Amino acid sequence: MGTNATNEMAGANKPGFSERKAFDETKAGVKGLVDAGVKKIPTFFHHQHDKFEQASNSGDHVVPVIDLANIDKDPSLRQEVVNQLREASETWGFFQIVNHGIPLSVLEEIKDGVQRFYEQDTEVTKEFYTRERYKSFIYNSNFDIYSSPALNWRDTFLCYLAPDPPKPEDLPQVCRDILLEYGKHIMNLGTLLFELFSEALGLNPNHLKDMGCLEGLYALCHYYPACPEPELTLGTTKHSDNDFLTVLLQDHIGGLQVRYQDKWIDVTPVPGALVVNVGDFLQLITNDRFKSVEHQVLANHAGPRISVACFFSTAFRLPSKLYGPIKELLSKDNPAKYRETTIAEYVAYYVKKGLDGTSALSHYRI
C-alpha cells in the first residue's frame, strides 16, 4: 500500500477529512486557492493560537550572526568562530552565517528557480504532485495533510541532492541546473560546518563526518503565497527539525521565528546570509549539549515568500545505522539521556506524528 493511501486511512476519521482530500486532489496546493481568489481561508487551515504566538522582540534578543571570513587562513579567527558556534548551539540552537563562500548570484538563482517552478502553468506542476516518499523529486502541499491538527499555508517540493544526485531528467527543467549546483555548494559548506561543530565539542574535526552526518542531503523548497487571513493560520507550525543540521536560505519577506527563553524571536533576514540550526539528531548525539529548538513561520499578507531549507540527514542513505549519544561526551556525571535509534525509525515516528507542536525527541529519552 502506498504512503498516500496509508496516510489517508489513518486520517479518514478526522474532522474535515473529506475537505482535505478534495484539496489534495486538486494537485494545485495553496497557490491554487490563491489563484482562485479565495478571500476566506478554509477552516482546516485555522490554527489554535498558543501563548507564544506573539513575537516578543524588544531588541534585547537577536539571533547570533557568525562571520566565516578567512577562517581557513587564520587559526585564531577559526577558534573564535568555534567559540561563537558553541555558544550559539548551546543557547539558541540557531545562528546566521555570512561570508560562507556561496556566491550571492547562486543564492539569488536558487530562489528564482524555486519561484519559477511554482509559477508555471498548473497543468505542468500537477505532473510532479505526489505523496510517494521515495521519488527523487516530490511536490505536494503539507506532507502531514491527513494527520496534522491544522494545515500550513504553504506548498513544498523536496529534492534529494546527495549522496546520489537525481538524474537531471527527473527534475523540472525550470530549476534543474541550479538545484544540482546549489546542492554541491551546500555539501562543501556542510563539510566545513561539521568540522566546526566537531571542534566545538572538543572532538577531532572529522568526528561528525566519520559518524556519517554528511552522508545524505535533501532540500525542501517552500512557497508561501500571500494569505488573505494570516492571523488565522501559520506558514509552518512550530516544530524542530528531524535531522543533524539545517542550512536555510530565506528571502527578504521574513516570518521565520525561533523560540528563545519562552519567547518567539524573529530571525530577521540578513542579505547574503544563511540560517543554520541544530537538528534533533545533533541534540541526541551531543546528549543535549547542542539544542534543537522549536521554530515556526508566520503567514503573511505579503508574498510569495520563498525559502530553501537543506537538511543533512542519513534517513534514506544509512537507514539501519544506530545513533546514540557520542561516547566521548559521556561520563559518570553526564550519562546518556537517549536510547539508541536509527534515523529511519526516528523520521517514520516524526512523519506519523506530524507537525503537532510537540518534540519527537521526548519519545527517545531514557
Automatic annotation (TrEMBL):
Show the stretches that span the lipid bilayer.
none
Q: Which UniProt keywords apply?
A: Iron, Metal-binding, Oxidoreductase
What is an example of a Pfam family matching this protein? Answer: DIOX_N
InterPro entries hit by this protein: DIOX_N, IPNS-like_FE2OG_OXY, IPNS-like_sf, Oxoglu/Fe-dep_dioxygenase_dom
All residue ranges annotated as the Fe2OG dioxygenase domain in the record: 215-315
Q: Which residues form a coiled coil?
A: none
One GO molecular function term of this record is: metal ion binding
Cofactor(s) listed: Fe cation
Q: Which PROSITE patterns match?
A: FE2OG_OXY
| Record-stated family | Belongs to the iron/ascorbate-dependent oxidoreductase family.
What name has this protein been given in UniProt?
A: Fe2OG dioxygenase domain-containing protein
